[in-house]
Structures
1.
Amino acid sequence: MFKSLIMKFIALSFLCILTALNGAAQKRVIDSLYKDLRFKKTDTDRAVALYNLSYYYQNFKPDSAMFLAKEAYNLSKKRKFLRGESWALSSMANAFHALHNYPKAIEYFIEQLKIEEKRNIPENIGSTYLSMALVYNSEKDVRKALFYALKADSIAKVNKLPELALFAKLNIGDIYEKANQLGSAMVYSHNAYELSLLQKNDQITGVALNNLGNIYFKRSEYGKANDYYRRSIPFLKSSEDYNNLAECYVGLAKVFKDQHNPDSAIYYAKNAYKLANDNEFFAKAVDASALLIKLYKSNGKIDSAFVYQEIMITLTDSIDNKERAKEVQSITIAEELRQKEIVEAHEKEMEERRQKLQLLAIGILIPIFFFISIFLSRRKVNKKVIEFSGIISLLMLFEYLTLFIHPFVAEKSHHSPFIEIVVFVIIAALLTPTHHKVEHWLIGKLSKIRERHIEMRQRAIDELETDKED
């Protein structure tokens, strides 16, 4: 019992030291990103800086990533910065993916997809499909994961997008492998490997070779599995992909275990555990420690098996606690976002109401100006004042019409400045002659009213003078 407590204490202490060291490095990067944000002046630049912060926070603090991305989204939407909106939605979706809230992740990826379809950039549409495929794969919905991954692959093929094709084929191979459809998995993983060589992408070369090792291991072709695993190691090391390298070491350990070579199996399982633990890939560390327990037990080394069992329990508890915390975080964040959206909707409603009231006020003011013009025309006022009043009334009317139809034009043109300019030039071309005709008609009418009233006034004066003479 005492030994068990000591082992738990050592394991927890080791995890705390690693977390502290990693935290110090993270703080330096975050401080640098916040410093960059402070120097940004325009809304679009601030939106990009906020997205960069959000992207960095995604893996270890998804709640912060979420709120930073939301702020970036609001700024981007305010400035009609579609690229910024898309990035922010992607960041929010990835944060929900990290929190294992898959429905919310899909919801935000769909919103991103709508924007990318407006922008009509095939590579971005394909990338969004691929992100959705990864969420469905995490949810173990193989059918939908393949549907979206294959759509991404199709877009890559039609539009000749080699990088998208590479990632699509790699992920399709991985989806098939996890679903134990090994024939299809092998075809796509080989394609990904060949494309990675052409594109000189060492990391993907290493991942594809590791995936092929997994496939051949499941087929019990241990010689080929061993070969692919070993070939992946230098690529994964050079690209510092320690997560997949740990998986590769676990794969090699399993190969040697099934080939009844316990010493080599223990060697690679230990390497996998150390690498995963040092880099905080705790799920891989659990896989490696579980394998070491089996290996030591089969060799009769109960003490060593017990050590790794205690480590595995500690790691599993840590992972379970993190998963529960993620679930709570996900619910909390979803509710906070909902409340924020309610506030934003209310503010938007108030702004729209304010604008409508202003339009109503202007609409009421225009006929008042017309009545003032008519009133002035009946009084002894300079003709130019009447003409000026009439022109102002007409200008307000036509500007009011332009202001009134602007939201409709903006919505239908998807806020495209070019389309808006063309539409308003056409409207101006139609309204300008009408404006001039109405202006001449109105001024003429007001002048006639003025002249008639002057004549009537003069006649009245003449009649009074005649009466006086009589």
2.
Amino acid sequence: MSAWLVRAFSTARSVFLVGLVLAVGGGAAYLATKAPAKSPAPSVAAPNAAEPEKVQRVEKDMLVVPESIAHNIGLQTVAVTPRTRSRPFPPLQGTLALDTNRLSRVHSRFAGEVMSLGQTTVPTMASFSSEPAPTTTRTFTVGDTVHKGDLLAVVWSKDLGEKKSELVDAVSRLRADTITYRNLEGAYKDGTVPERSFRDAERIVEADRIAVERAERTLRTWRLTEDEVAAVRQEGEKFTAKVGEKKASLGEWARVEVRAPQDGMILEKNVAAGDIVDTTADLFKVGDLSRLVVWAHVYEEDLPALEALPKPIRWVVKVPSRPEEKFAGTLAQIGSVIDPNQHTALVTGSVENPHGELKVGQFVTTCLEFPAPNGEIELPAAAVIEDGRESVVFVRAEGAANRYHRVSVRVASRFHDIICVRAEGNVRGGDQVVTTGAILLRDAMDVLPAPETVAVRP
């Protein structure tokens, strides 16, 4: 039994070793057939082959960049231009107010009773078609727009009636006394009337003329028009006409018309039909809102810069309710008193409001800009390299397209896309400065050895 086990184990071991040898040999043969052919050994370069181009630092602040390298790194330049962009002034906060020079207080020229008020036509409902909307009439009220000459109220005044009556009386007496004078003149020439009677009649006519002139001047002083004065004179002539001649009615005789003195909006109404008014009462207040006053505050440390701006000073007004819109205006005056609490000065100006979008009392922000100063140039922000110690740019040398000079600049102001620097030293208007690739040139300048230790190739 044991002999049989020994023979079986010996036979199995022989079979395993033969299979292992065959497997290893087959794998080696397979790898040999799949292995890539070995490439030939590189040839040794000839002693006179051209070396690759390199960036060279030929001076302390000068680099020579071959054209091929400039193309590979995408080197780009732009021309330097004088500064044209203005610098914004710190925004000023303020409010809108009514321009008192455009506000009219409407009075009656004579004291009396208000008989009626002026009327305007307004639509009764909105129209959504091409047909005109139905309208109705109502008396003027606050917020209505009026035009110069619109009738606002009618006042019945006994004072005006009395003054007109004085003129009528003077005209009537002048007419009667003139007739008497002419009759006496003929009799005086015939010798039938003594000279004293004739001279007395002449003096009476002169006194009547003076009375007529005095009454007319009084009416003109009360701002009656020439047509109104002429109408009163005609009324006086009627008193000597035939009986039954139509005379002026009492209502027309004492009628005082109160009309709008200018175009604008009714801001205040202090009268109603039946009121007794005098010449000092403000019946209406009409304001022209096409231009409003701006009251703004500027901090005292900003006053010198603001006062140095060229006159007139233009500004742009913005309101929170219309952030996308800008309204043009002008700064007119800078106050001379500093508020002790806010340490600000009051500045006043105006803003145009032709369509009425702005309202009196609104909060506003005014924006001003300093004009572009002389002696500064504009550079793209990518052209200026700053490391916290200095600001430099790379300027392409004149007449040498592959030479770039590193130049220190003094920054005057910064914007999101450009940087304004002083036009001094080796940077002037018209120079070509590097934009794309400027950082790479700066790195090359830092890495390459100083020109004292490098041999410059011809």
